[in-house]
Amino acid sequence: MDLYTKGSTMHRIDGYGHKNHRFYSPDEGAIDYDGQTKLTAEWLNSMQEEVCRLLEAFEVKLDKGNEGQVAKLAKDLVTKLEGKINDSISSLSGILSTDIAKSKEELWQLFLAENERQKVDIQSHVDSLHSKITNENEARKKEIQSASASLREYFSTENEARKSDHERVNNMITDKTGKIEKHANLHIAWSKMFVRAINILDNAGLLCDNSNRSYMIDIRPKEKLYPLEF
Fold it and tell me: How far, in Å, are 91, 176, 188, 209, 223 from residue 179 at the CA level?
């Protein structure tokens, strides 16, 4: 039997005595008629068929002595729905786990790529700084070498000048020393000659006493010995 064939269909009560398609009781007070809402066979059959066809739609065999068929069907449907929901959640969790793992891997790969890019940038910056420092060091080295050369040249010139002054002073000292030695030798020779002359005169009786110098022979050297020239 076709469960969905048209016949008595679900509808609100429309029997005699209804009020806006709702059941009416005499206790509610009559408005325009007496009595209560009439239950029609059409409405009752409609309710019966809706419930029965619901059970039959889920392959539940109608049992006259079982009043819990609808409740059991509802419970079974809820249980199956819960299972499907759990399966869907598990499937969704698996999909989410896979997507999360995939996203984590993609993020990790992006991180590695970014890290490599930053490493390249940092290495490039380090190389640039190293080149700059090397160039600055070379420039400083050249400046120091130039300054050292200038200082060496200055001290060399200064040493040459001092050496020249030293040699000039040594020459002057040597010259003056020679003159002093010459005059000293002359003085010594004159002194020796004078002593010999005194001895000769003394032996000859030609020397006078201290009170009478008129007969004293002038034996002073004719060459001027003093003053010494420096």
Answer: 127, 5, 14, 37, 15
Domain annotation covers residue 173:
no
In one-letter notation, the amino acid at residue 39 is L
Whether residue 88 lies inside any domain: the answer is no
Burial class (CB in 10 A: 0-12, 13-18, 19+), 53: middle
Instruction: Please report how many Cα atoms fall inside a 13 Å half-sphere around the Cα of residue 71, on the Cβ side.
Output: 3
Global model pTM greater than 0.70: no
Residue that is written with structure tokens 């060459």 in the block: 223
Q: Is residue 68 part of a domain?
A: no
Domains of the chain: total: 1
Torsion 84-88-93-94 (CA) sign: positive
Separation CA 10–CA 15 (nearest Å) = 14
Answer whether the bond into residue 227 is a cis peptide, omega within 30°.
yes
141-190 per-position pLDDT tens digit: 999 999 888 888 888 888 888 888 888 888 888 888 888 888 888 888 88
Residues 188, 182: Cα–Cα separation, whole Å: 10
Q: Where are the beta strands (DSSP E) in the chain?
A: none
